[in-house]
Structures are given as structure tokens and as C-alpha cells.
Amino acid sequence: MAFMSASASSTDGADPTRKRVLLAKPRGYCAGVDRAVQTVEQALDHYGAPVYVRKQIVHNLYVVQALEERGAIFVEENDEVPEGAIVVFSAHGVAPEVHEQAAARNLRTIDATCPLVTKVHNEARRFADDDYDILLIGHEGHEEVVGTSGEAPQNIRLVDGPESVADVEVRDPERVVWLSQTTLSVDETLETVGALREKFPLLQSPPSDDICYATQNRQAAVKAISPQVELFLVVGSPNSSNSVRMVEVALAAGAASAYLVENAAAIDPQWLEGVSTVGVSSGASVPEILVDGALAWLAERGFGTVDEVAHTEERLTFALPRELRREMGGAATSG
Ligand code: SF4
Questions:
Q1: Residue 182 per-residue DSSP state
Q2: Measured distance CA(219)–CA(239) in Å, rounded
Q3: Is any atom of ligand 1 closer than 6 Å to the C-beta of 211?
Q4: Could you tell me the strand order of the sheet in which 258-261 lies?
Q5: Cβ of 219 below 6 Å from ligand 1
């Protein structure tokens, strides 16, 4: 890279008038996204084009376009896939009825649902089997929420933020549990849970965190930097829930301004007026090449000094979907 880079875990003592970038770590690809993208790439290598993919494999335009160039065809629903063809299900997960529709059309499916989303599906099924009302905290219409809700539509009630708690009704307030989408704001979710608990004091919590490690780590890294910056740029697509949440977290944590940008071309030079320190991070579905582009854009405008501020080291990787490993005859992992 053409810019100065200092790997640092502390920024104490920096000259406040010096133009610089504080680059959050971790940022970008999580284990689930890495696995999902590699699933499509390996399927293309193994079977040849075309490989159909239901919905955006991950919520990033660059990734989707790059895979399209290699022969992936993105569809909204199974009925757009020719009978007998291969279809990959996206990282966000699908409802059981989507598997049923695929079987009815004789599709060969590869399920790239992130294992951490599958964990929430399993929780939903288990609590539904025990006849709980499940209060699913999440954003209405998001693919992950649609998929999780499909596991137990009779038992799940969507709670879309603290303001919607007043409308929540349950059958038995002694048999209620909350679960959540994996990519929410940690702080807002705690607020929603607090409001739910006031209404339902016997509300049970999920057996383990539903907001995934990657979402939590990226938000914590943004939070650590935000008080020091006048501008925070989060690279990510507008339909990427975890990316949008990072902008909100930056603002709440003290960044004077924060924007979500698809790539360097979307940065408005006017945002730099009066700015000496820029925070940069990227959502869990964003390849590093887009961050490099944003850093190069900033370097051309005098922000060539980049201090990487490390919050957490991530080492998690997931094995590729079983269906694909079996076909490929090996125990390939995604990272
Ligand atoms: Fe999995 Fe979390 Fe990445 Fe979503 S953001 S794909 S849940 S690791």
C-alpha cells in the first residue's frame, strides 16, 4: 500500500492537528461471509458455470458483481432456477419451506447459511417445541429474520426495536424467550431486552449470544475509535445490516459525523472540511480491496498516515458446507 501504516493498539500522544486515519481492526470479512463467498467460488470451479444463488450471497454489491462475472446467476426465488440445477442458499439463512420448494423442483442445493445463523434457527425450533412464545428482535423484512421466523411461524413474534415493545402480546408471560438477528446493534438490543423484561419479568434469554462475534467485535472496534474522529467512514452496502449498525454505533460513540460508503467513489470530499482524524472500518461482507480504495482516496487528500487500532484478533473459520465437501471429496475449510 502506498500509505504509511503503523500497526498500533494505542493512539495516545498523537498530534491532534496531524491528518491521519484510524483504521479499525477487526473489520471486513467474517468467517460466515468468507465461507459463503468461497462456497460459490468453489461450486463454480467444481461444477462450472452457471451456478444459481438464491438472494445476494452476502450483502455486498462488489462481491455479487465479481461472482456474476465468474458465472453465478443471482435469483430471488427457487422458481427462477431451472429444474435440476445447482442453487446456493445465502449466508443469511432460509426458512424450511425454501428447502421444501427446492426439493419439489429437484434442485441440487448447497446451503451456505452461516453456522451462527443456523444456531439461532436451532434455538427457535427448540423453544417452539417447548411451546414458548419467541420474541425475535430484528428488522422486519431482513432475509435473516424471514428465514428464522420460518422455523416456527406460529411461535415467533418480531420485535423491531424498543419502540415496538408496547405492541407485543404473548400467550403465556411465564413461557417467553427472546432471540435476535445476528447483526444488530448490541446496545440497542440490550435496550429492547430491558423494555421487554419490564413487560415480561420472566422473559428468558437465549442460551448464548445471538448477536455474532463478528458484529460485536466490529462495533467494539468502531466504538473505541469514534471519540477521536471528526469523520467516520464505514465501507459497506446499504442493505448490509451490520454495516449500517456500525455507522449508528460511530455516531452514538462520539464521532462528529459518520457515513456508509459503498466504495471510494461514494465519499464526498466536502466531508473532509475541518477534519484532521478520519475513522475507517468496513462491514462483515466487505472485501479488503474496497477499504484499500477508500484509504488510497484519503491518502490523495493528505490523509496518508494510517494507524491501525486493534481491538480483537479473530481466528475463527468455518468448514465449507457439507454438500460441497462431499462432492469435492475432501475436508476443505473456508479459511
Ligand atoms: Fe455469520 Fe456473523 Fe458473519 Fe453474519 S455477520 S455471516 S452471523 S459471522
A1: T
A2: 17
A3: no
A4: 4-8, 305-310, 20-25, 277-282, 231-235, 258-261
A5: no
Q: Which atom of ligand 1 is nearest to the CA of 32?
A: 6
- Most distant CA pair in the chain: distance in Å? 64
Query: Which of 29, 94, 113, 117 maximizes ligand 1 atoms within 8 Å of its Cβ, making it the mutation to test the pocket?
Result: 117
120 lines ligand 1 (CB under 6 A): no
Cα dist. 244→118, 239, 261 in Å?
22, 8, 10
Treating both helix axes as pointing N-terminal to C-terminal, what angle do 186-199 and 241-252 enclose, rounded to 10 degrees?
A: 90
Per-residue model confidence as pLDDT tens for the chain (335 residues): 333 333 444 444 556 568 999 999 999 999 999 999 999 999 999 999 999 999 999 999 999 999 999 999 999 999 999 999 999 999 999 999 999 999 999 999 999 999 999 999 999 999 999 999 999 999 999 999 999 999 999 999 999 999 999 999 999 999 999 999 999 999 999 999 999 999 999 999 999 999 999 999 999 999 999 999 999 999 999 999 999 999 999 999 999 999 999 999 999 999 999 999 999 999 999 999 999 999 999 999 999 999 999 999 999 999 999 999 998 875 455 44
Q: What is the C-alpha separation between 134 and 123, in angstroms, rounded? A: 10
**151 belongs to the catalytic site:** no
Give 268-276 contacts, CB < 8 A, sequence gap 24+.
Answer: 269/301, 271/231, 272/231, 272/301, 272/303, 274/230, 275/230, 275/231, 276/16, 276/17, 276/18, 276/19, 276/20, 276/230
The one catalytic residue in 123, 143, 144, 151 is: 144
Q: Measuring from atom 8 of ligand 1, which residue has the nearest CA? A: 32
Q: What are phi and psi of 52, to 5 degrees?
A: -85, 145
User: Is the minimum distance from the CB of 242 to ligand 1 under 6 angstroms?
Assistant: yes
